[in-house]
Structure formats: C-alpha cells, structure tokens
Amino acid sequence: MDMRKKLLVMGLLVVSSLYGFGPKTVVSPRSQSLFAPLEHAGWDHLIYTPDLESTGATIAITPFYEHSFNTNRITEALFGCKHLIFTGSQVPCRDECDILADYWGLPSDYKSEVHFDPNIVSFVMDFNTYINLDGVTPGLFAQVHLPMVHTKWDVQLVECIVDPGTTFTSYPAGYFADEAIELSELTQGDQAPKTVMQAFQGKATYGDMRKPLKYGKIFGRQSESRVSDLRFAFGYNCLLTDRYHFGLSLQAAAPTGTLREAEFLFEPITGNDHHWELGMGVSAHYDFWHNEERDRSLGFYVDGSITHMFASTQKRSFDICNNGCGSRYILLQKMAEPVVGLNVGTVLDNSLSPTQYQGRLQPAINITTLDAKIEIGVQAELLAKLNYYRRGFEFEVGYNLWARSKEKLQCRDCIPDCYAIKGDAQVYGFTNPDELPVALAATQSKATINNGQAPEGTNLNPGNFNEGFEFANINADNFANAFDTGGTALNQLTTADANRLGVSQIAVRTSNPPVLLTDCDIDECSALLPKAISHTLYFSFSYALKRDDMDVIPYIGAGAFTEFAPDCFVQNSALSNWGMWLKMGLTFGQ
Asked: Would 165 be classed as within a structural domain?
C-alpha cells in the first residue's frame, strides 16, 4: 500500500472514530451464483468429453453452506468500531465521540454501550446444468445455473446499559414539542423506546415526530430466501481432445435476487443487487501427465469470465456532506411558510422571519433514503486449479480470484428543499409573560450525530447547554434575536421548566436566515461501494461411477473453501467467508 493510500485509510479511521459511525451505509456481498470453485468442482472430466455424436447433459445438485468471518471490516464500515457509546445531552462530561441519545427519544441522562458483531450465514441449494450440443455441432454447449438461497444477516447488537435515565423527569417544552415531554411518554407502552436496541427497531414516535424510523433499522436477525440470479452461458469448445480443450462462451445473468429496500441497516441480500449482466467467458485445460493404461491424469485447468453489470435502481441511504458519518440518524425539522408570530432582528428593527418551523420532526434517514440508479462497470472471475484423476476419482486444489469495479451513481431522486437540521436546538420559544409557544426557525447546519454545533465566534463547547446560555440557541446558524409580533423577546423556556432545570429564563435566538438542506448536501459517496477483490483457496474430491453397461453416470463429491478480502472496507468492499459443499449429479447422453 503506498503512502497516499495509508494516509487516506488513517484519515477515514480518524473521521469514523470522531463521528462514531462508519463511512459507509451499505454492504453488498458477492452473488451466490458466481462462484467458480463450486461450479467446476468434480465434473470437468464429465463435461469436456470429445467425439460425442449426440446431445447430452450433466446435471449437478449442490447443497452449500457459507459463513462470514473477519467481520471487523463490516463493523468499521458501518459503525467505525465494534462498540459505540450512547449518551443523552445532559450526561456530565460527555465524550466528543459519544452518540447523542436524544436523537432516538431516549432520556437526556441515558447512557449505554452498544456492541456489534455482524454475522452472515447462507444456505444454498445450487442447480447447475451443462448441455453438450454435439448432436447439433461438435463442441457446442449451453449452461443454465439456478441457485436457491436462504441467507441470514444479523448485526448482533448487544447493549450494556450504564444509566437508564434515573434522574430524568422530562424534556423541556420547546425541545421536541411545544409542551414538555414527560418520562412516562418516553418509557411507557410497547411503541416507546426504553433502550438503544428498541429505538433502532423503528417503532417509536415522540413529541413532534409523526413518523418513526423508516429505514436503517436494526431489528435482530433478518433473513431472505429466493433465487439469487439466473445465469446462462452459450459457447463453443474450439479445441476438445482427451488431453486438452479451449472454449469461449457468451454469458448473461437475469436478476431474480433481492431488490434492495434499505429498511434495515444490515439488509440481507441474495444475488447481485438486481443488476442484469452480459459478458464472455473462456475455459481451457491441459493434462501435462497422462497414463491411458491406468486411466490416470494430472491436469491444469483455468476458467475466467468478465461481465458488465447494467444499472439497477435500488434504495440507498445517504449521509449528509457537512455533518459526518452517521448523520442520516440526526433529526430534521420541516421549515415553510406561512410564518405565524415570529419576528427577527433587534428591538428597534425587527421583521417577519423568512420561514418557520412547521411542527414536524423527522429522522434524516427517512428523507435521505432515495431511489438510486447504480452501475458497475466490470465484474470478473478467474479460476486456476490442479486436477488429479484416477479411474473415476478426482481430487483438485485451486485458487479463485473475484473482482468487481467500484459502484457508479448514474442518477438518484432529489430531497425536498423544506428540511433543516435540528441538532440540539429549541424549536419553540415562549411569549412573555403569557408563555404561549411560538415556532422558531433555529437551524444547526453543522450538527453531527454526536453533538449540536458549536456557537459561532465563541470558545464555548459544542452544544446548546453552555452555562448561562442553556437552551438559548446561541449555537444556531446566523443566530438572531427572536420576537413576537409585538416586539417582545421570546424566552427559551417556560418558568416551570427553567425552575426544574435550575437555569435562568433568557431570550431565545432563531436563525436569520435559517440554513436549509439542499440536494447538493447529500453525501453520495457514503452509499456507494468501492471496488471489491477477494481471494479463495479451496479443495474438492469426487467420484464418478463409469461402466460400459450404463447409459447414465452418477457422481458425488464434496469440497471446502476459504475466501478472504485484503485491505480495509473503504478500499475493498468484498467480504470474507468460509464454506463447504456436497455435490452430486448425473451425466447422460455420452
């Protein structure tokens, strides 16, 4: 790895550590239908048979088990590290890397440590048929490949609660709604989140939030069962003898697997993300040792394919450019006109605010999950193996290289231009002395998953809770005084909340003008995967029962493999797996 790549990786790891989430919002595996070691194991001496005068076929049925390992790469991609600390805004001495629990509607003094250990297990029943068309033209062949997949994905979230919120009584009026939100509203009922684990299930609403978390959920183990994709090949063996062959083929894949919906952060995927594929393949072998009397041989086989993966429209969740990793989980507030009761400026010179909070909060991921049209330029696979054959018995050991170029975004949907980042701002102020709520327009365009933004032009800590300025929105964008239409300054808290919190009632600020999210703020790289490269070592053995008095040749075999991906996930999105298979089938027409 050169110095530039090392510095890039170090920089991304630092950013991930700072923001508490990883740089990617998505994981995509290699299609279960594209695995040459499984496809070619045990039947090469049956399908590459010269001097046939009729059409025949070789059928393979292969139960296949696959299990992920080295999942730290996945954890770093999605979460930055294996564990995160969630703390509420009022926890003393919050670390800058802590995730702000307020965004999930948990008590402001809540604290817990959340651990992740992603796990992928797949069961495949692979059906593969090779049809020799020698009865039409010697050397002509076709192949149909159909793997039925059941895959189970589990982020394995484990939470250790340090403080469930023992001193919390309520969120003050103005923070999430125009009224105080009591502890009972946050912790009672089946829909209320009591833990981070429950909050990620996407069932909870609170305050002005009308719609719960719709995308990016974590809800235990998720599974998917379907045909991964349907693969075809049509080719011609230009050379075919007892000792060697060389063939070319046209290859295609029809997507029958999972169409990504992004409902879950660790979404189970079968197939190739619903891409159509078209390309070509080449295969060859040479027996460099051959003993006809004892029916023995030792040969070297190679097989390769390269396809283009056409654009597929799927849902992807995006972070926000200026707000760091994980920013898709912060809260957005809806802004619009008409403006009611909110003036901005000075006591002597104030005017109607240009826009105003409309009483709607929304998890950002509900807005930044978009239909995206994604293309992959090239996918390639190479198999090289040694094969020893003795009177129906085969043993082989081989290497498989799989590679896929980085994802390219052709186009995507746009976000509406009526949302702004809330951060830890008060969204309502209160008239003096009647204490009637007035919606503000206080935005925090630089808030992160960890904190509200820092007050501009000060040495104060990030957030809206600095001593003497608690809940006053002095960290709002372009902060300005907020007045009612009579020119009286609005307060940041009601008297009851100020007394309960032990802080003074002071004038609240708003933004003039507020900073709204635009479509250009979408971090497209966060939902696009880099290139993928994996290396596989495997072995297999098999036996084919060949007898002169039999028109059908049965065979059976087994194998095992280890697939590993080098480098960190931000450079290489391939996954590491180990697995085993049992392969059986019939050959007829030879």
From this structure: no
